[in-house]
Amino acid sequence: MRLSTSNSELSTASFNRASAYLIATLGLLYLCCELGTHYGFQRLSRIQQRLRGEKMALLAVRPAAPGAPRNVVIVGNSLLLASVDIPLLNKLGSGQCNYSRLVLEQTQYVDWYFGLKRLFDEGAHPDAIVLVFGAHHWLADAVRGEYFAHELMRPLDVFQVAHELDLDRTTASNYFFASFSSWLGGRAEVRKFILSTILPDLQDFVGKLSPGPPSYPAEEVIFSKARERMVRLKTLCDSHSVQLITVLHPTLQARTPFDTLAKAAEAAALPLVLPVAKLAYPSDLYADLYHLNARGMERFTRDLVAPLESQFLGDHT
Fold it and tell me: Which of 23, 33, 99, 291 has its CA 20 to 30 A from that of 218?
């Protein structure tokens, strides 16, 4: 009987030791992933370096002193990255505005609503924010997954995000933990980075798999949804004494509802800048169906500066 008891105790002790080793190994592996993502990925990825630098610069921005150029931050997704040359914009401007930017690719309205909440909460306070969107970005009901949660979402905002996007509990909990963890928030980007390093042409191939131009609901649905979102975003910025202006990016799609969005912006009392008509640019200024090429960027920047600055200078007339 004692031998049986002794064997049972040894088996339990061995199991406990094995469990402890397994837990320690998994913990060490997770720590390596966390530190590797936080420090290694940030240094290896040019996109992450750019994002980190732009975000740190934005968090340091404060309202300009009287008589000094206004601090204006332009935010948006890859359309902004490919369409506005910030050094050229500052060069062509009147000198009364100092422009900088924050770009996070594949982001839309919901990303930036919660993103601006977090940036304001962390201390960002420019004089004005300019949001560059395509028409469909105002209407989309999606975010950039766990990457959004880590880069743009405050942890406790997960409940509001889950309600707004009708997320299931698993996805919502993933977002919550990703808001704290570099690895959970960036693991999809790490995979993309590794694949793009191994297969340099992968991004071009994926770009060719685009599902085509977006479809739009009825005009009254567009107007109602866009107006509500514009009011909501403007109210957020107003509560922090930050002026909000939005720029509508040109497109090659004739069905894009520019007129309806312009009416929604007017109803929301949100300044909307339309530098050019939606079909004004020929296809040879585009790199693909949506993004401008280098010549398109220069032209759009030149077309943007006058109508954009008129919004700011009008505040002082």
Answer: 291
b/e map 288-301, b = 16+ CB within 10 Å = eebbbeeebbebbb
70-127 tens-digit pLDDT: 999 999 999 999 999 999 999 999 999 999 999 999 999 999 999 999 999 999 999 9
CA distance 84 to 276: 14
Task: Report residue 247 as tokens.
Answer: 């720029």
DSSP element (H, E) containing 139? none
Whole-angstrom distance, CA of residue 20 vs CA of residue 18 = 5
Residue type at position 22: L
Q: Which two tokens stand for residue 290?
A: 């949506």
CATH of domain 46-316: 3.40.50.1110
CA atoms within 13 A on the CB side of 186: 22
Which CA distances in Å does 166 have to 107, 144, 288? Answer: 18, 15, 32
39 to each of 26, 33, 186, how far by Cα in Å?
20, 10, 12
Q: How far is CA 311 from CA 61, 207, 234, 315, in A?
A: 20, 35, 15, 7
4-23 pLDDT, tens digit each: 555 566 667 676 777 777 77
Q: What values do phi and psi take at 215, rounded to 5?
A: -100, 155
